[in-house]
Specification:
Blueprint: H1 20-29, E1 33-35, E2 41-43, H2 46-54, E3 58-60, H3 63-69, H4 76-81, H5 90-101, H6 106-111, H7 113-125, E4 132-137, E5 141-143, E6 146-148, E7 153-157, H8 158-162, H9 196-213, E8 214-219, E9 226-227, E10 234-235, E11 240-244
Parallel strand pairs: 2-7
Antiparallel strand pairs: 1-2, 3-4, 4-7, 5-6, 8-11, 9-10
Helix pairs in contact: 7-9
Length: 248
């Protein structure tokens, strides 16, 4: 493992998830690599994360690896996890991904547009209202300042990469007119998020319905409570009040 020393970041610390961007920015100011409490490297720069996502010498840190780490070698949980697409590599992954991809063609995704809009309308009518990923080296690999031996893991902070000021102008500003939006949220390569097109469609429809059907939208709590979770950053709830536009 490369001896580069960086800020220690504990992704299981609930306090981190209240302001992960601030914590990651402070860590990045001390260098391009942070460390887990176990000493494993966390890549913080966009260029390094982008390279790692595409590097053929790095494999996805599978569910099986996590089970192995916890001493779960067999049993129903292991058998079920062995069937997951995220757990597969090579020909097995390509075969299963090819089958699943048929449900996410542009035509199939666009056909879901009406359903997504209808679902959002139903929510409004009832007045009820992401993280690092991991890779493991198949062979000795160098990514930026980090050198990995075969079998060694590396964490890729997508949150830090997407707000890297060396890659994006005004990286911490939500600019809906930004032209340079080449983020890494959906990953790259053989494990690129297979539902990316559907996720974009759902967001487009939800925002369109919200801004065309509602006015005076406000948050009903002082601040949202974030759920600490390794892969997906989300809130426990987000209570809103709004005025529904007549006839919308």
């Amino acid at each position: 493992m490369d001896a580069t020393v960086g800020t220690t970041i504990d992704v299981l610390d609930p306090a981190l998830w209240d302001d992960p961007y601030g914590a990651l920015a402070r860590a990045r100011s001390g260098g391009p690599v942070a460390r887990t409490p176990d000493g494993e490297p966390i890549l913080l720069r966009y260029d390094d994360v982008d390279e790692a996502l595409r590097h053929p010498g790095l494999a996805t840190f599978s569910v099986q690896s996590l089970l192995d780490h916890n001493g779960i070698a067999d049993g129903p949980l292991r058998e079920w996890c062995d069937l997951l697409m995220l757990s597969l590599e090579g020909d097995d992954h390509a075969r299963l991904r090819g089958l699943v991809s048929r449900a996410f063609t542009p035509r199939r995704v666009d056909a879901a547009r009406a359903g997504a809009r209808s679902f959002v309308r139903s929510l409004l009518a009832s007045a009820s209202v992401g993280s690092p990923t991991m890779r493991v080296a198949r062979q000795p690999v160098t990514i930026g300042p980090v050198t990995l031996g075969a079998g060694e893991p590396v964490h890729l902070s997508l949150l830090a990469a997407n707000r890297d000021p060396d890659r994006f102008d005004r990286a911490d500003v939500l600019d809906v007119g930004r032209s340079d939006v080449r983020h890494v949220s959906f990953g790259y390569g053989v494990h690129h998020c297979i539902g990316a097109a559907l996720a974009r469609l759902e967001l487009q429809e939800a925002l369109a319905e919200l801004v065309t059907s509602c006015r005076e939208i406000s948050l009903e709590i002082d601040a949202p409570v974030w759920v600490p979770y390794l892969q997906v950053r989300r809130v426990e709830s987000l209570p809103l009040s709004f005025r529904r536009i007549a006839g919308a």
